[in-house]
Amino acid sequence: MIVGAGPRAVGLLERLAANAAELLPADRPLRIHLVDPYPPGGGRIWRHAQSPLLRMNSMAADVTMFTDEASTVEGPIRPGPSLAEWARRPEEFEPYRPVADPAVRDELRTLAPTDFPTRRAQSAYLDWTLRRAVAALPAHVTVTTHRDTARSVTGPADGRQLVRLTDRVLAADQVVLALGHLGSVPKSDPTAEFASRHGLFHLPPAFSTDADLSGVAAGQHLIVRGLGLAFVDLVALLTEGRGGRFEQTPDGLVYHPSGREPVIHAGSRRGVPYHSKTGYRLQGPPPPLPRYFGPSALDALPAGRGELELRRDLWPLMAKETGFGHYHELFHAHPERTTLPWAEFLARYDRLDWYSPGLTRLVAEAVPDPADRLDFEALDRPLAGLRLDSAEQLQHHLRGYLTADADRRADPAHSADLGAFLALLSVYTQLPGVVAAGRLTVRSVAEELDGWWTGFFSFLASGPPGFRLRQLLALAEAGVLRFLGADVRIGTDEATGTFTATSPTVPGHTVHATALIDGYLPRPALTGTEDGLLRELHWAGEAAEEVLRDPTHTHPSGLLAVSPADGRILDPTLGGTPHPRRTALGPHTSNRSYAAFARPRTDAPAFRQNDAAARSLLRALAGPARERAQPGAAGRAGAPAAAARSAPRP
C-alpha cells in the first residue's frame, strides 16, 4: 500500500513497474493500493483544482518523471518524455486520453520548451505518467485507488499491517508513506496570540494553494516575511488574483490595480527575491560534470563518520565545480570576453584551490569584466553593508536591482549563469551520499547543510520564472509592493496594536501593519506534523525524529528517520532498526530529497531513492515468507465497493 498518490508515489510506481519483471515472480499476484484524498497523480500540491495563476519554477523542457542515460539506478532505465515533449504530441504517447480542461489543452498545445507551465499543466502530465506506470505493470499486478485519508497503520513487524481509512481497514504486506510536503499543527505562538488579541490577520507558514487570504482587506498594510517562491505565489494571488492586470507597454510592464489589493511590505534575511530562472538554453556545449565534486573526489576526503565540515571541507570543491560550469560556458560561448585559450585556463584552474590567491589572479587575468566573474559572496548577500537614508531610497535601489537581475537572466549573453546553475545541480545530486554516510559533523548538518546551504541553493537555483521578477517590478512601481530591506526583524507594538518591521538597511525606519504573513513553506516537524497517521506512529513510539548527536552538538531536524539505503522507517521499538514492512519517501524524511521533479540527464537523487525502495519492496513481497490476505480481509463493514476504484489499465 502507498499512502499518498502525488509525484513521489507516481515515481515509486514507475520504478515498481520497471523492476517487477526481474524481482516479482509471475506466480506472485500483487495488489497495489494508492490512498490519497486528492486526485492521484497530482496529489495535494499539484492537483488541477488550483489557481491558473500559479506556475512551476522550471521550464517545460526541464521537468521529467523518467530515468535516462545519466541515471545511476540499479534497476532498468526506462526513458520517457519530458513535460515539453509530452505536451507537444500527447496523442503519440500511450496511454492517450484527452485532457479534460479546455484551458489546459490550449496551454499544452502552445507550450514551448522554455515556457514555465502552470501547475495545472503539470497536473495533466502527472496524470498521464501515473496511467503509463500502471499500464507498464505486469498483468499479475493491479492498482486500486482510494480517494480517502489514511488515519493510522498498525501491526507487528513480522505480520501484516492494518491501515485504517475513514470507514474501512485495509491489510497490507508493505506500507509506503509518500506523503509529500507536510504542514505542521500550529504551536503556541506569541505572534498569533498578539494577532488574536488585537483582531489582526496572521497567516503562519502555509502552502499557497491552500492559504485562505480572504482576511486580508483591500488597502490593508500587510507585512510578508520571506521573499522566496511562496512569497511570489502569495503576491500573485493577492494582486492579479484580485482582479489587477499587467500590461506590456513600450516602457515595460505596467500593473493596473483593481483596488482590492493590500499594500504589501516584504522583506527577508537577504532582502531581495530569489534569482529568477534563466529563460534560455546553453549557448555552448554542456560542461562535462562532475569534475571536482564527484564520487572520486568525495572518496578522497576523510572517510570517518562526523569528520567533515561542509563549509571547510566540501564547499571549496562545490564552489570550484560551480565555477567550472560557469567558466566552461563563458569560454565556449563567449570567447571574445576572455583572454586565454580554454585549455590553458582549465589546466591552471585544475591545479588551484578555490580560495587561493592564484585562482583569483587567474580569473582576473582571463576574464577582464568583473560582471563575467563568479562572486558567491556578492550573490549570497547582495544588500550586505548597504545603509540608506530613507525607505524611498531603498525602493529605488531594489527596483534597479530587480531590473538588472531580470535583464541578465533573460539575456543569452550571460549564459555563463546557466552553466553555473547546471554545475550547482550536479553538486546537489552528489550531496545525499555524503549525508547518508554520516560524514558531516552534527554542527555542520544543522548550521551549514540544513541551514546555509539549503537557503543558498534555493536562492540561486530554485527561483521563479523571469516574468515574475518583471511583475514584482511593476507592482513596486505601482506602489502595491514595497521592500523592507535585509535582516528584517518583525515585532509587535501593543500601543498601536500593530505588527512592526525594521531593517538595518534603512536605520530608524519602522513599518506598521495590521496583517502579517509568514511567506515560506512549513518546515519539517515530525513532533507537530499535521498528518494524523505519521503523528500516531510517533506517539506510539514506532517512528522517530532524526536527532543527530556528537560530543558538542545535538540537532533535531524535524525529519522522519529512515534508512539511507531504501527508506525503511527506523522504528525505536525495534531498537532503531529499519522496519521490515514500513517505508517512507519524500521531503519529510531524513533522506532529504526536496525536489519534486527531475531535470533530464542529471541523475536526480529522487530516482535513486525511488529505485532502491522499489527493489527493496519487491524483494520483500516476492520472499517465501510473504503472507496472503484472506478473502475479505481488506474490507470494512458496510462500505460500498465503488469507493475503491481500480486505476484503468489502458
Automatic annotation (TrEMBL):
Annotated stretches, region: Disordered: 621-650
Pfam families: NAD_binding_9 (PF13454)
UniProt-listed InterPro entries: FAD/NAD-bd_sf, HpyO/CreE_NAD-binding, L-asp_N-monooxygenase_NS-form
Domain FAD-dependent urate hydroxylase HpyO/Asp monooxygenase CreE-like FAD/NAD(P)-binding: 2-181
PANTHER family, A to Z: BLR0577 PROTEIN
Protein name as catalogued: FAD/NAD(P)-binding protein
Provenance organism: Kitasatospora kazusensis
